Amino acid sequence: MRREKIHDMRPLAFVDLETTGATATVDRITEIGIVEVDADGTVREWQQLVNPGTRIPPFIEQLTGISNEMVADAPSFADVAAETLRRLEGRLFIAHNARFDYGFLKNEFRRLDVTFRAPVLCTVKLSRALFPEHKRHNLDSLIERHGLAAEARHRALADAQLIHQFWQKIHAGLDSAAIEAALKAQDAHPSLPPHLDAGIVDDLPDTPGVYLFYGENALPLYVGKAKNIRQRVLSHFAADHQSAKDMALSQQVKRIDWIETAGEIGALLKEAALVKQLQPTHNRLLRKNDELCTWTLIDEGEGWLRPLLASAQDLDFDIRASCYGLFKSTKEATDVLRALATEHHLCDALLGLEKTAPGKPCFGFQIRRCKGACVGNEPYARHTMRLVGALARLKLAAWPLNGPALIHEGDETHLVAGWRYLGTVKSEEDIHTLLATGRPPFDRDTYKILAKHVGRMKPLR
User: Fold this and answer.
1) pLDDT (tens digit per residue) in 399-409
2) Which of 28, 45, 211, 286 has the least CB density, counted as fewest CB within 10 Å?
3) Residue 264 and residue 25: Cα distance in Å, rounded?
C-alpha cells in the first residue's frame, strides 16, 4: 500500500483483464488486475488468476503467458466475484479499450444474476483526445511515447499498472484544464428519452443483436438490428435533433429490450422474423407481405415457355426451380412483365398478358412492337430465348442443397431450409426440435439475407 499525489478526488480503479477470447458473451476471464486509488491517494494492487471453465486457445496462451495448467487450480469467477465487486464499487472504472473489460465483467456478473454498473473511462479515447497528432493509441504505443515501465505485458496487473502510469504522466505533464475537458467529453451522454432510466446506457451490450423499443404497451414501437447494440441504440437518441423520425420515436420510448446474437447474420435473421411477428408501427421496410409472388415458366410445347405467376409461399425453391423476381402484388409483377415485353419486343399473347384467338395478332404486333410470334412470323423457341434473356436479371437463386442447411456463427447455429429461417440453436439436440415445428412462410427479406451467405451453408447430415 502506498500514497500518491491526488489529481482527481474520485476513487479510481485501473482495470485490466486477460480472457480466453474477444467475445464477452462467449469467452471468459482468466485473470483480473486492479490498481485501486482512493480519494486520499492510497494505492492498492490486486491480481487474481481465474479458472475460466473452458480451454484457453493456444494463441491466447502464447499471447498472455497464461496456460491451462496455471488456471487449473485457480478459483472460478463465482468464487472471486464478491472480492472483485468490493474492489470496484464506488470507483471510476478506468481501462484501455474500456468497453472490452467492462463488458466482460458485466457478463460474468450477469451469469451470477448480479447487476454490475460503474462510471467508465477509456484511456484509448482519452489519449486520442489529448494527443490527436498521433495515429496509434494502443498500450504499446503509450509505453513508447510516454516512457512507461512495462514489466510483463499482457498480464492483467502489469497492464493495469501501465494504465495507472499513463494517468500519472498526463496529470504531471499536461494542463489540468485540457485533461478536464477531455474527461468531460467522455462523460457526455446522449439525450435520452425522458421516460428512460439513465442506467440503460451502462446495461446496453457492445455485441451484435436485436433491440426493441417499447412505448405504453407490450407491443414494440420499433425493432432494429446492430453489430453493436449499445452504439446503435444510442445513435437513435444522439441524432434525434436531425431526424424527424428518430425524434418522434424517442419521445415515445419508455422501455428498451434486446436480444444478443453471436454475429451479424443472426441479428439480421432475428430482426426480419421479429418484425413479421410483432408488426412494430415504426418498421415499414420489413413488414409482412402475404401476397408475395414470383414468375415461373411453363412449358407449352414446341419451344414455347409461358410465364405463370405463382405465390412464393407455395414454392420450395429447389435446385430445379426457375423463379424470376419477388413482387409485393400481382399488379407489381404484371407491370414489370409488361415493361419487359415493351423493352424486348415480346408478344403479349404468348406472355399471357393479352387474350387473343390462336393465330390472331396481338395488339403489340399491330403497332409493330411484337415480332410476330403470335402469327408465326417468329419461331416460339426464338421468342422463348429472348424472354429468358429479358428475365435473367430477375432470376432468383435456387435453393443450393437437397435439404436443410446449417450456418455456424460463433456459438450459434442457424437452421434454414428452402430460403426459410427455421431458428437458431446452441446444441445439436435442438436442431431436431426445430425441424419438427414445420417451415414458416417464405419471406423476401430472409431470402435476401441468406442469398448473401450461401457460401457459409453446410448440409444437415
Assistant:
1) 888 889 999 99
2) 45
3) 14
Report the C-alpha gap between 321 and 254 in whole angstroms. Answer: 47
Q: Give the whole-angstrom CA distance, residue 213 versus residue 196.
A: 11
Take residue 445 and report the three cell numbers written for it.
Answer: 427479406
| H or E element at residue 351 | helix 348-351
Task: Give the number of other CB atoms < 10 A from CB of residue 36.
Answer: 20
Q: What is the mean pLDDT of the chain?
A: 88
Which residues neighbour 101 within 8 Å (Cβ) at sequence distance 6 or greater?
15, 16, 17, 93, 95
Mean pLDDT of 340-351: 94
The Cα-based distances of 93 to 18, 37, 282 in angstroms read: 16, 11, 37
- 349 in helix, strand or coil? helix
Calculate mean pLDDT across residues 317-334: 85
SS3 assignment, position 38: coil
Strands 92-95 and 12-19: parallel
Give the whole-angstrom CA distance, residue 55 versus residue 236.
Answer: 39
Nearest to 255 by CA among 323, 199, 333, 310: 199
Determine the pLDDT at residue 432: 85
Distance (Å, rounded) from C-alpha 317 to C-alpha 213? 35
Which residue ranges form the domains of the chain, and what is each CATH number? 2-187 (3.30.420.10), 200-278 (3.40.1440.10), 293-394 (no CATH), 405-459 (no CATH)
> Can you tell me whether residue 96 is helix, strand or coil?
coil
**Amino acid at position 400, single letter:** P
110 DSSP assignment: H
Q: Which three cell numbers stand for residue 4?
A: 500518491
| Helix-helix angle 444-451:264-278, to 10 degrees | 170
Strand 42-49 relative to strand 29-37, pairing: antiparallel
Cα–Cα distance between 36 and 351 in angstroms, integer? Answer: 78
Share of the chain above pLDDT 70, in %: 92
Q: Sheet harboring 209-214: ordered strands across?
A: 220-226, 209-214, 255-260
CA–CA gap between residue 410 and residue 17 (Å, rounded): 21
Q: 41-45, 69-73, 131-135, 152-156: which has the minimum mean pLDDT?
A: 152-156
